[in-house]
C-alpha cells in the first residue's frame, strides 16, 4: 500500500508539470531527485534531457523504458503542454516497478531508461547514441491502452504498433485577383488534387494503411486574393514497415506529377518517422509470465494490434538482436489517447507497476 500511494503521488506531480519534447528539464530533475532519494545509481546528460538508472549486479543487463515528454495541444481553448498520451503514467509505473524490485532478489542488472521526446519520434535515438541499450539483452516498455482496446484490469504482453511518418509540403504558385484567376496559379488547386490522389492509393485489403491530409494553410484576410502559396501536411501510416516505404514512394511520385500538371513547385519534407513494432516472441512470453504471476490468468489479454506508433521500436531497428516487447495496461482510458481531456482509472498504475516488476524479475533470471 505504501508503494501504491507513492506511485499515485508521483503521477500527480508529473501530471501537474508536463513538459514538451526536448524541454523536459524539470521532469529530468524530478526523476533524478526521486532516484537519489531511493539510493539508486543513475546519471543524466549534458546535452539532452532524460535519465538512465540501474540496480543489481552481474554481466547481463535487461532494461525497461519510460517516455517522459508531453504533447503541445489546445486544452480548453489554451495551447499548453499536456500529458494526454499517458507518459506521466508510464514514468510512475516504471518508478513503481523499481520500488517493488528494490525489495526483491534479482538475477542481473536492470536498467531504467527515462527517455525524452517520444512524441517527436527521435528521443529513442538520443538514448541509443548515448549507450542506453548497450549490452542489453531484453527491453520492455509499458503504456496505458484505450478502453476500446482492452478494459481496466486486463494486461497485454505486447503491443504491435504500426509505422508512421509525416509529410510537410509547400506549394509555390502565384497570387491573382479573384476576378482574374487566369493570371495566377492557385495553390489550393493542387492541394485538392492531392486530397483526391491519396484516396486512389490501394494495397492488399489484408494490409492496414492510411494517408490523410492533416493541415492546410493558405490565404489571408483579403478574400478576393487567390493564394499562390500554401502549406499542407499528411499523416502516413501502415502496419508493416515495407508497406509504409512503398506508400511513401507512391505519395512522392504522385505529388510531383500533380505539381507538373498544375505548373507549380511543391517542396516536400518527410519527418518524424517511427517504425512498426518488431515484437520478440521470447520477450512477450516473459511478459505473459509476469502478468500471470502478478495479477492472475483472468487479467491476461492477447497481444494488441494498433495503428498508433511509438519510437520505442527504434531500439530494435538499431539492435535487431534485442528482444523487446511493450506491455499494454487496460485502464478504462477515454475518450482516447491524445484527447486533450483524456482520463483513466488510476488504480491501473499500481497494477502496471506490479506486472512490470514481475516481468523484469523473471527476465533477470534467464540464462
From TrEMBL:
InterPro entries per the UniProt record, alphabetical: Amidohydrolase, Bact_exopeptidase_dim_dom, Peptidase_M20, Peptidase_M20_dimer
Identification of the protein by name: Amidohydrolase
Any Pfam family hit: M20_dimer
Entry-linked SUPFAM superfamilies: Bacterial exopeptidase dimerisation domain, Zn-dependent exopeptidases
NCBIfam families hit by this protein: amidohydrolases (TIGR01891)
Entry-linked Gene3D superfamilies: 3.30.70.360, Zn peptidases
Positions of the Peptidase M20 dimerisation domain: 170-256
Amino acid at each position: 500500500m505504501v508503494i501504491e500511494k507513492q506511485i499515485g503521488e508521483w503521477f500527480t506531480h508529473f501530471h501537474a508539470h508536463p513538459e514538451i519534447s526536448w524541454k523536459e528539464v524539470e521532469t529530468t530533475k524530478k526523476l533524478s531527485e526521486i532516484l537519489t532519494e531511493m539510493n539508486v545509481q543513475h546519471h543524466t546528460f549534458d546535452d539532452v534531457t532524460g535519465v538512465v538508472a540501474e540496480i543489481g549486479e552481474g554481466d547481463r543487463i535487461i532494461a525497461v523504458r519510460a517516455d517522459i515528454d508531453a504533447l503541445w495541444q489546445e486544452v480548453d481553448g489554451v495551447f499548453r503542454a499536456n500529458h494526454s498520451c499517458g507518459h506521466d503514467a508510464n514514468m510512475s509505473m516504471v518508478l513503481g516497478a523499481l520500488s517493488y524490485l528494490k525489495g526483491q532478489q534479482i538475477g542481473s542488472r536492470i536498467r531504467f531508461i527515462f527517455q525524452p521526446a517520444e512524441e517527436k519520434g527521435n528521443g529513442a535515438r538520443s538514448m541509443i547514441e548515448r549507450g542506453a541499450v548497450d549490452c542489453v539483452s531484453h527491453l520492455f516498455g509499458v503504456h496505458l491502452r484505450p478502453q476500446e482496446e482492452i478494459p481496466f484490469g486486463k494486461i497485454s504482453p505486447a503491443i504491435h504498433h504500426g509505422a508512421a511518418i509525416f509529410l510537410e509540403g509547400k506549394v509555390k504558385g502565384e497570387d491573382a485577383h479573384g476576378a482574374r484567376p487566369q493570371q495566377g496559379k492557385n495553390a489550393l488547386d493542387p492541394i485538392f488534387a492531392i486530397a483526391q490522389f491519396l484516396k486512389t492509393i490501394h494495397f492488399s485489403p489484408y494490409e492496414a494503411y492510411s494517408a490523410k491530409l492533416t493541415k492546410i494553410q493558405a490565404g489571408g484576410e483579403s478574400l478576393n486574393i487567390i493564394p499562390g502559396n500554401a502549406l499542407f501536411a499528411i499523416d502516413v501510416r501502415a502496419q508493416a514497415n515495407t508497406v509504409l516505404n512503398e506508400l511513401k514512394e507512391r505519395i512522392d511520385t504522385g505529388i510531383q506529377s500533380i505539381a507538373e500538371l498544375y505548373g507549380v513547385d511543391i517542396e516536400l519534407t518527410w519527418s518524424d518517422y517511427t517504425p512498426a513494432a518488431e515484437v520478440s516472441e521470447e520477450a512477450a512470453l516473459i511478459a505473459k509470465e509476469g502478468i500471470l504471476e502478478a495479477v492472475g490468468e483472468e487479467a491476461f489479454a492477447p497481444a494488441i494490434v494498433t495503428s498508433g506508433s511509438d519510437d520505442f521500436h527504434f531500439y530494435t531497428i538499431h539492435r535487431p538482436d534485442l528482444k523487446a516487447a511493450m506491455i499494454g495496461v487496460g485502464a478504462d482510458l477515454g475518450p482516447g489517447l491524445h484527447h486533450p481531456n483524456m482520463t483513466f482509472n488510476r488504480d491501473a498504475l499500481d497494477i502496471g507497476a506490479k506486472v512490470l516488476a514481475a516481468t523484469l524479475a523473471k527476465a533477470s533470471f534467464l540464462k
